[in-house]
Amino acid sequence: MPGKMVVIFGASNILWIMFAASQAFKIETTPESKSLAQIGDSVSLTCSTTGSFPRDPEIHLSGPLEAGKPITVKCLVADVYPFDRLEIDLMKGDHLMKSQEFLEDADRKSLETKSLEVTFTPVIEDIGKVLVCRAKLHIDEMDSVPTEREAVEELQVYISPKNTVITVNPSIRLQEGGSVTMTCSSEGLPPPEIFWSKKLDNGNLQHLSGNATLTLIAMRMEDSGIYVCEGVNLIGKNRKEVELIVQEKPFTVEISPGPRIAAQIGDSVVLTCSVMGCESPSFSWRTQIDSPLSGKVRSEGTNSTLTLSPVSFENEHSYLCTVTCGRKKLEKGIQVELYSFPRDPEIEMRGVLVSESPITVSCKVSSVYPLDRLEIELLKGETVLENKEFLEDTDMKSLENKSLEATFIPTTEDTGKALVCQAKLHMDEMEFEPKQRQSTQTLYVNVAPRDTTVLVSPSSILEEGSSVTMTCLSHGLPAPKILWSRQLPNGELQPVSENATLTLISTKMEDSGVYVCEGINQAGRSRKEVELIIQAIPKDIKLTAFPSESVKEGDTVIISCTCGNVPETWIILKKKAQTGDTVLKSIDGAYTIQKAQLKDAGVYECESKNKVGSQLRSLTLDVQGRENNKDYFSPELLMLYCASSLIIPAVGMIIYFARKANMKGSYSLVEAQKSKV
User: Fold this and answer.
1) Total domains present in the chain
2) Cα 645 from chain centre
3) What are the tens digits of pLDDT across the range 356-400?
4) pLDDT tens track for 585-615
5) Are 469 and 438 in a shared domain?
6) Is 676 part of a structural domain of the chain?
7) What is the domain-level CATH number for residue 171?
8) In this structure, are 172 and 137 located in the same domain?
């Protein structure tokens, strides 16, 4: 029951609002007259109205849309009720610029005009977009009333004229009788119209043309003045001025090759002064500082030449050609600037390029001028090794030789790279060729000989009469040259062969010695030594007993073994016996028996051997006993004993020096058979 009463009250309230709002409303209710309702039943009341949302919104702009300038747009909705149900959206394209709901006092019952304002800055990209003003009346209960209306306006963005530009052909300075064409352009939207005017002396403008191009022919001096181009469209205007100067037609003077010339020191230079518009001109030449002309002048007709040959430092001036034609005089100048850059740079290396060894390279530029414009650069491949600018006193006028040095450590990877010396003369304002010279040298990095080895076949120890081959190998860049030498006793080297392989056929003992192999290239040398030993079978072996093989008991006996001139020979001295041989401890192949006894008698054997072979010799020592003791101490025996005491050391020395002289070999097996020769 309470719910039903609410429905009835709500419907009655709407009826009241509609009725009391304004005479502009037309209200219809159903049922039309009074209606009786039984308590407890349901009652349905229907109210319809028109005129509360009568028109589409209106879009108002505060002015034309100019790109970059703010503008205010207003969306206006007229005669709306109830406005507390109103919502207005303002959109630019798909972008919602502003939305507003008008939540005002609902007790005020009148038709209202509501609006929504937005200020924005239009841009060129807005061209073609639309402004949409959409109004919504949120009364869902009334189907007959339009609940949404909108207004659409396409944007037209304008650009005020700007960047007005005038081009003049051929020039703003003209001669009488000449013609000129001036073209004007101006940017804007819509495209500006072009208007040409001339500014009068009183400041007013004299209209000339409405075309973009203005052509004036057969001009007179009074046509000189300021000409105005104006670009105009709906938004505004923009102007540009240009002053034309119409001169009395004069004669002209030209000087060649131009206002300035670059002359290489030592060359010949010809300066030419030409006149046009004067039939009989007179010429004169001078330097700007009135120094001596130092040249030869030749004038003929409308031309005059000044020849400077050869050009030197005294010619570095500005030269003036003065032309007189009637009462008028004209002067033209030409600046002669000197340079010297005659040859490509020279690359020099201090030594040979050897891998991992520092080397200094220099780049030399000869007879260069001016020095303060010179730059030298040294490059290895694409790597800059050194760079220098010679910022020296510009007042010094002389030809100079300049160089640049750089030190680097080459590697084998540098082989094939280019070493570039680049010289530049930075005189861009002067026209001459070449302003840059360079020299290139391809790097070839040498590797000093190394890992030199010698291969000996069959062996470095040989039997006399056999052959031996010695092969030498050495690594380096370029491939090392092989040199075989033999080392002399004084340490000097005696060249033997320049082949890698050295072969000795039917060797002799005198071929023994130290052989040296050297690998040699321009980067260095490497050597390897090998000792060649030529051996022979021991020969000419001699075994002797001094003073005799038959001695008396008590005598001193020296048993000596010698052999021929065979080095590396072992000498073994033995005393033979049935119970076994006894190796005697000899000194240089000599064994001394002091006071011989009967037991010292017997067979003595000498063996001389080396790695090649051996020889044996033997002798029998006979020791005789004394007959009696008195004989032992007889005067004759005493004299013999004294004499022997002097002879034995002498014989020993004789044997020793004989061995040394003959380079005999003497070894003792007791001394572990070590070589003593």
Assistant:
1) 7
2) 95
3) 999 999 999 999 998 888 999 999 999 999 999 987 766 778 898
4) 888 889 999 999 999 899 999 988 877 778 8
5) no
6) no
7) 2.60.40.10
8) no
